[in-house]
Amino acid sequence: MLDIPHLGYIVAAYGVAALALIGMIAAVWLDYRSLSSQLEALEKSRGGNR
Amino acid sequence: MWTLANPTVFLVLVRRTLPVMAAATFVLFGLWMAFNAPADYQQGETVKIMYIHVPAAWLSTFIYGVMALASLGTLVWRHPLADAAQKAAAPLGAGFTFVCLVTGSLWGKPMWGTYWVWDARLTSVLVLFILYLGLIALWRSIDDPGKAARATAILTLVGVVNLPIIKFSVDWWNTLHQPASVFRMGGSTIAPELLWPLLVMAIAFTLLFLCLHLMAIRNEILRRRIARLTMIAAAEGDSLARAPTPEMAR
Fold first, then answer.
1. Among residues A4, B67, B204, B208, which is most buried (max CB within 10 A)?
2. CA-based nearest residue to B81, from B92, B66, B93
3. Whole-angstrom Cα distance, residue B182 to residue B15?
4. How far does the CA of residue A32 sit from the closest CA of chain B (Å)?
5. pLDDT tens sequence for chain B (250 residues)
6. Using CB atoms, which residue from A10, A29, A35 is nearest to B49?
């Protein structure tokens, strides 16, 4: 396995791609969680005011 | 189609379809791992980089096409979700183009002897990446969402001229990058043992993008609801502050 020529380039390419894809998934998911909790808090406070 | 213009209907649709699409994406990535694609007779195992580079490259232009269609929706039909779709796609397009550029560079070094050359294909994809960043910056630099949507829609449509340049650059100019080998007149030139895992990976990448895009559009809808509720709350607070107190009324 380790004697594959150019193994470092292959591993680096997959590593960068995995990081970028996981980063995009995490960014979208965390944004959703943050927005959901903000919206919930706003709706609660509006409900409380009435 | 126009029913989906209603954000509430769209949110229901996302809630129903997202788990199925996410599961299909996982299955396809798993299926790709089950393939034991052989090494290329010339490139050896380095050809494995193709399975991430090529789908990322296809998506980089596909996402721009999606943004161009959404821009038409904003400018021509004023579709309520079109600008949300366009705004949500830009960071994803930048991400996939980044993957395309970096993996291409890491593939180029062992195969071409260099990480980068200023040839037509590489340069036009770099221009596409910069265009994505410019569109994200333009969205963020204009406060009024309506004005921002129209400005980015116009810039997106201007940038469409880059898509045929990317596609045909390898035919129009002498480039270090190889010409098209999958979607070409006369059929694919890639051996089926290498082509099938590539197609599976391309579908997996596309499904991943669709999942992320639906989620990001949903985020945009929530962001707008928050902005609207905040403005209503501020207006209510303002009117309460201005309401005459009994002492003032006397």
1. B67
2. B66
3. 35
4. 6
5. 666 678 888 888 888 888 888 888 888 887 777 667 788 888 888 999 999 999 999 999 999 999 999 999 999 988 878 999 999 999 999 999 999 999 999 999 999 999 999 999 999 999 999 999 999 999 999 988 889 999 999 999 999 999 999 999 988 988 888 887 777 777 777 888 888 889 989 999 999 999 999 999 999 999 999 998 898 888 877 666 666 655 554 4
6. A10
CB atoms within 10 A of CB B64: 24
- Name the residue of chain A whose CA is nearest to B210's CA: A25
Q: Which amino acid is at B74?
A: T
Interchain proximity B103–A45, CB inside 8 Å: no
Distance from CA of B46 to the nearest CA of A (A): 6
Asked if A41 has any chain B CB less than 8 Å from its own CB, the reply is no
Report the alpha-carbon distance of residue B186 to residue B224 in Å, rounded: 49
The two three-digit tokens of residue B236, written as one number: 């209510």
**Angstrom distance (rounded) from CA B66 to CA B69:** 5
Helix, strand or coil for residue B143? coil
Radius of gyration, alpha carbons of chain A? 21
The pTM of the whole model exceeds 0.80? yes
